[in-house]
C-alpha cells in the first residue's frame, strides 16, 4: 500500500471505523443483549455511528493537522475508557453505568473494587483502536498534512451525521414506540440508540432532575403539609388494625381492566375466580376504582402504591427520580418489623427497579435469578403467571414473617399472546387480534390467582395473610376502540374512555367475614393509607395524597395523571364535563371546583418529587427538618 496516497481524512475515517467496529464487537461479546430479529440486529449495528460521526467530526473545526489528530486521539481514548468502564461494571452488575451510580457508590458497596476485580489482561482488546490510531498518526504521512477544511464540506458532513441520527431514531421508534419518553430500561436504550447516545440521554435526564432538586428547599413543604393536614381521613375504628401482624401479599394484575369482572364474552366467563371473590364474605371488591398511572405504567402503579403520590407527568418516575428520599409503604412496614420484598421474574434493572427499590428501602428483590425460567414455562414477556405464582409461594415459605411482598404478574401483557394449552376460553371474534387475545390472557391470569390462593392454603400461609390485588393500568388502548365498541355494544366517547380506566381492586382478609362490594369512587393512591390502617399503622403524619377507603372522610373523587377526574356525579374528560350517571355533557361550571382541586393535587405531587422534598420531612414527628439534618 502506498501510504503517500492515503486520503486527507484517513485519520478521521479510521477513528470512526475502528471505534464503530470495536463497539459493535463489544455489544456482541461483553453485553448480554437479547436480539429478537434482523431489524434489531441492524439497529444495534448502526447505533454507534451517529454519535461517532458527530464527536469525531468536531475535529474538522481545528485548523492544523496536529490539533486535529490530538483531538481525535484524546476523544478516542475517552470513548475507549467509557466503553470499557461499562464492560467492567456490566460484568459485575449486569447493568450499564448511570450518572447517579458514579456518585452514590455507597449504594453499591465498593463499586471501584468490584469493577477492578473483574478486569482481565485480555481486556487490552478494548483499546486496540487507540493503539491503531496512534500508529496511524505516527506512520501515515497524510496524517501530518496541513489542509484547510472547507465550510461547505463541513456542512455536508454534519448534515449526514444528523441524517444518521434520525435514521437510527426512526428505526428504533418502529421497534420500540415511545422509547425516549417511557425510557424502559438501560438495555433497551443501549440496544436502540447505542452506548454513547445513551450516556448523553442519561446525563440529560439526571441533570434536569438534579437542577430542580438543587433549587428546592424545605419551605416548599409547608404548602404540602398544610394541604395534607387539612384533608385528613380518620381511620374507621372497626377496620383499623383488623389485619394486624398478618403477612401482606400485594399483587399487580398486569393490564387488567375492570370491565372483564362479572362479565362474559361470547357466553364464556372471563374471570371466574375473581368473580367468585366479588361475592366472597372475606373480600372487599371495589367496583369504582381507577388506575392513576402515566407513561411509567406498571412501575407508576408500583410507585403510587408505595407512596400515595403520582408518578411524574413526563417520562417514568422510576427513571427520573430514583435518587429521591421516599417514605414508602415498605419503609413504614420495615419499621413495624416486617420483611419487605418484591417478586418479579424479570431483570432487576428493567424499569430501573433495582435503583428505585433501594430508594423505597425494599429489603429484597426476588428478580429473574430467583426463579426457574425456561422455554417451556415462559411466554411473551417471560415466566408465565401460573409457574410464577407456584414458585413465588415456595419463596414466601422461606421469608421471615410477617412479610410484605409485592408480586408483579406478567402474562396478560400486550400483545397478549399465550400457548394453546393455556387458553381456557376461545378468543373474541372481532377484526382486532389484540382485543381477541386479551380475553384469553386475562382468563389465564385469573386461573393463576386461583392457583395462588390454593397454594397459599396448601403451604399454610393463607390464614395469616391479607391478599390485595389491583389492576395496574389499562390493557386495551384507544387504538382498539372499534373492537371494544363491538364488544361493549356502545360508542366509545371520551366519557367512556375515562370510565374504561377502571381497574379491579380487591382486599381479601381470610376468615374476617367483613367483606362486601364497595362503590366508593377511588384510585390506586388510596391503597397505601387503606392498607396501612388495616395493619394498624397510623399514617396521620405521612405526606400522602390518597385516603383510607374505609374512612368516613374518604371523598368520591379520583384524579388521573393527565388531569381527567371522576366523582360520584361527574366525569371530566377531553376538557368536557359529563354527568357520571347518564354520560351526557353537563354544565362546565359543575366541574370547575374539581378541576382546580385535581390540578392542585397533581401540582403538589410534582413539587414533592421534582424538589425531592421528603428529604426535608421528618415523618415520625410531622415536622420540617432543618437543612443540616436533611438526609440525602
Ligand atoms: C415488566 C413490566 C411491564 O417488568 O414492567 O411493563 P408495562 O409495559 O406494563 O409498564
Ligand atoms: Mn403493566
UniProtKB/TrEMBL annotation:
Belongs to the LTA synthase family. Residues 246-537 form the Sulfatase N-terminal domain. Gene3D superfamilies: 3.30.1120.170, Alkaline Phosphatase, subunit A. This is Sulfatase N-terminal domain-containing protein. It comes from the Bacteria. Keywords: Cell membrane, Manganese, Membrane, Metal-binding, Transmembrane, Transmembrane helix. One of its GO terms (molecular function) is metal ion binding. It is a multi-pass membrane protein. Its main location: membrane. Mn(2+) binds at residues 254, 298, 472-473. Substrate binds at residue 413. The keyword Disulfide bond does not apply. It is found in: Cell membrane. The chain crosses the membrane at residues 12-30, 42-62, 71-93, 124-143, 155-172. GO terms for cellular component: plasma membrane. Pfam families: Sulfatase. SUPFAM superfamilies: Alkaline phosphatase-like (SSF53649). InterPro entries: Alkaline_phosphatase_core_sf (IPR017850), LtaS-like (IPR012160), OpgB/LTA_synthase_biosynth (IPR050448), Sulfatase_N (IPR000917). It comes from Viridibacillus arvi. The active site is at 298.
